[in-house]
């Protein structure tokens, strides 16, 4: 008996030795750390992460706020290791100075590939570069800018305002977030695709069948993002292999989206009027350089980038406004002044130049996105060993995510009143809007991969707010939203959990 025991011990010994060797090696390797935080020696950030995973954004913002380096480390054995930073010096380093060493990375790209292929949003290196060059060229054209303004103004005048007026007359409770998402989807599809999905068209809000494409797209996006949230990295691959569970639903949603997009690409390819059309797809089709699949992926990349970002920004904005009637009054004053200066009447569309004159409105939206950035956290990965400007080591394969949310709330950057909503911090003495460095205000990303749709986003948001506050009052139903800050859903974009319940009134009744 005793002999047998020691024999098996002898057999096990090498294994035990090997395992402890591996463990010490892993533990001895440099780990990212967080100032003022003690990681568990074996489990790393796992216990604290489990404690806080339901409020991950806020937790990481708190750790970052407590750190003079303005960043947190993160490691859990067997899971990914890296940093979340809000330090403008780090951000400039990863997004500009050493851009080539911080791609999206194969890990992230592999997860989105089934849905987005290798479109602009989901590629690195040369594959990204040529698409970016072509797209930047199109986005810099005046014809596209004019087209965007026309599409947006048309959607405001003929869909959004009539819908809100009807809601006012009928004393109806609306989910404003849903309305804004539909608005965003209609306009991005028209600008990118030249296709009108009519999600906000008459009855569209009630009639689900009118927005099947939006529905499939949303489902595909949520399910594919779910892959990132899964704590067990390979479980989606197993589910995919057996075509079960969420992966089965994802496959169906992706097939629907691809079929829909492909139909439009093929139809445009055969259309004789491509030269006369202003949408982005038509420009790419006209150059004849790309296969149908490549065009489809380009289009889907734009949809994912532009679909929910503006609606997220506006939903939090309208919620903030519900406790700031003083700001609403000033916006309406500015709109009235611009009407006078441009000789237009309430209800008429605003041109690009009129929108540009609205500096105060620009500041109120920017200030809202500082506190509630539509893309709260954004991942990059480190390609080769590197050091951050303050000497902190970053190993190849680690992630370096920036948190726009944490950065927007740092006293070291915005001052002691950083948690206060104060649009004036964006205005100069003369009342003109003063932009901040993109490394401090990284809401639209920065460096070579900076958001291509920033101008379009402001056109959209300003048109909606100016037209709504000129005529209507938005009452947020606090009894539905609760007293404090509404809860969020943490996906690619910062969505409000359960939507934003509002009632609409005509302004004349309010005064
Ligand atoms: C408030 C609205 C918006 C915000 C806050 C925003 C923010 C961002 C951010 C943070 C990124 C970097 C994402 C990443 O690479 O992981 C990005 C990229 C991008 N955005 Fe926006 N965006 C907005 C609206 C739009 C709109 C309306 C469009 C539509 C044309 C658009 C087009 C793009 C594109 C094409 C990229 C990818 C650029 C590249 O990878 O080279 N965005 N945006
Ligand atoms: C988990 O949260 C509780 C309550 O907030 C706290 O008392 C505890 O110390 C936390 N544990 C860890 C490991 O962070
Ligand atoms: C950083 O981003 C990557 C890719 O989305 C993700 O897998 C990782 O969990 C993120 N890390 C943290 C601490 O947020
Ligand atoms: C329309 C357009 O800009 N097309 C260009 C896209 O990029 C390729 C490769 O760089 C060029 O050859 C095209 O002319």
TrEMBL record:
<protein>
    <recommendedName>
        <fullName>Cytochrome P450</fullName>
    </recommendedName>
</protein>
<keyword id="KW-0408">Iron</keyword>
<dbReference type="InterPro" id="IPR017972">
    <property type="entry name" value="Cyt_P450_CS"/>
</dbReference>
<keyword id="KW-0349">Heme</keyword>
<keyword id="KW-0812">Transmembrane</keyword>
<feature type="signal peptide">
    <location>
        <begin position="1"/>
        <end position="28"/>
    </location>
</feature>
<dbReference type="InterPro" id="IPR036396">
    <property type="entry name" value="Cyt_P450_sf"/>
</dbReference>
<keyword id="KW-0472">Membrane</keyword>
<dbReference type="Pfam" id="PF00067">
    <property type="entry name" value="p450"/>
</dbReference>
<dbReference type="GO" id="GO:0016705">
    <property type="term" value="F:oxidoreductase activity, acting on paired donors, with incorporation or reduction of molecular oxygen"/>
</dbReference>
<dbReference type="GO" id="GO:0006629">
    <property type="term" value="P:lipid metabolic process"/>
</dbReference>
<dbReference type="InterPro" id="IPR002401">
    <property type="entry name" value="Cyt_P450_E_grp-I"/>
</dbReference>
<dbReference type="GO" id="GO:0004497">
    <property type="term" value="F:monooxygenase activity"/>
</dbReference>
<keyword id="KW-0732">Signal</keyword>
<keyword id="KW-0560">Oxidoreductase</keyword>
<dbReference type="GO" id="GO:0020037">
    <property type="term" value="F:heme binding"/>
</dbReference>
<keyword id="KW-0479">Metal-binding</keyword>
<comment type="similarity">
    <text>Belongs to the cytochrome P450 family.</text>
</comment>
<keyword id="KW-1133">Transmembrane helix</keyword>
<dbReference type="GO" id="GO:0005506">
    <property type="term" value="F:iron ion binding"/>
</dbReference>
<dbReference type="InterPro" id="IPR001128">
    <property type="entry name" value="Cyt_P450"/>
</dbReference>
<keyword id="KW-0503">Monooxygenase</keyword>
<feature type="binding site" description="axial binding residue">
    <location>
        <position position="451"/>
    </location>
    <ligand>
        <name>heme</name>
    </ligand>
</feature>
């Amino acid at each position: 008996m005793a002999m047998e025991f020691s024999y098996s011990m002898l057999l096990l010994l090498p294994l035990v030795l090997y395992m402890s060797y591996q463990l010490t090696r892993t533990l001895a390797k440099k780990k990212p750390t967080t100032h003022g935080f003690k990681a568990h020696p074996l489990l790393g950030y796992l216990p604290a992460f489990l404690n806080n995973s339901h409020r991950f954004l806020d937790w990481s913002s708190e750790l970052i706020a407590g750190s003079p380096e303005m960043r947190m480390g993160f490691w859990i054995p067997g899971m990914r290791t890296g940093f979340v930073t809000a330090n403008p010096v780090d951000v400039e380093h990863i997004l500009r100075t050493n851009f080539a060493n911080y791609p999206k990375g194969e890990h992230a790209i592999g997860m989105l590939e089934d849905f987005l292929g290798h479109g602009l949003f989901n590629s690195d290196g040369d594959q990204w570069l040529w698409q970016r060059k072509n797209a930047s060229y199109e986005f810099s054209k005046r014809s596209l800018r004019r087209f965007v303004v026309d599409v947006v103004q048309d959607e405001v005048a003929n869909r959004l305002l009539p819908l809100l007026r009807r809601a006012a007359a009928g004393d109806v409770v609306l989910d404003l977030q849903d309305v804004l998402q539909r608005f965003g989807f209609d306009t991005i599809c028209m600008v990118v695709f030249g296709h009108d999905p009519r999600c906000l068209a008459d009855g569209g809000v009630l009639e689900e069948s009118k927005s099947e494409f939006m529905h499939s797209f949303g489902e595909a996006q949520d399910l594919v993002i779910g892959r990132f949230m899964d704590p067990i990295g390979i479980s989606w691959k197993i589910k995919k292999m057996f075509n079960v569970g969420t992966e089965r639903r994802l496959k169906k949603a992706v097939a629907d989206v691809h079929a829909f997009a492909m139909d439009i690409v093929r139809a445009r390819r055969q259309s004789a009027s491509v030269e006369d059309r202003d949408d982005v797809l038509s420009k790419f089709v006209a150059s004849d350089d790309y296969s149908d699949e490549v065009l489809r992926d380009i289009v889907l990349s734009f949809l994912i980038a532009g679909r929910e970002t503006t609606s997220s920004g506006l939903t939090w904005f309208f919620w903030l406004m519900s406790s700031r009637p003083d700001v609403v009054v000033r916006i309406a004053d500015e709109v009235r002044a611009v009407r006078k200066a441009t000789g237009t009447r309430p209800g008429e569309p605003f041109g690009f130049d009129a929108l540009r004159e609205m500096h105060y409105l620009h500041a109120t939206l920017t200030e809202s996105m500082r506190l509630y950035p539509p893309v709260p956290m954004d991942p990059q990965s480190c390609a080769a060993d590197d050091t951050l400007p303050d000497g902190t080591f970053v190993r190849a394969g680690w992630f370096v995510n920036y948190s726009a949310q944490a950065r927007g709330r740092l006293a070291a950057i915005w001052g002691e009143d950083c948690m206060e909503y104060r649009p004036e911090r964006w205005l100069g003495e003369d009342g003109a809007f003063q932009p901040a460095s993109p490394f401090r205000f990284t809401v639209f990303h920065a460096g070579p991969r900076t958001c291509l749709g920033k101008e379009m986003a402001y056109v959209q948001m300003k048109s909606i707010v100016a037209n709504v506050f000129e005529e209507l009052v938005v009452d947020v139903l606090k009894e539905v939203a609760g007293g404090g800050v509404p809860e969020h859903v943490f996906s690619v974009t910062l969505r409000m959990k359960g939507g934003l319940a509002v009632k609409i009134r005509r302004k004349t009744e309010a005064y």
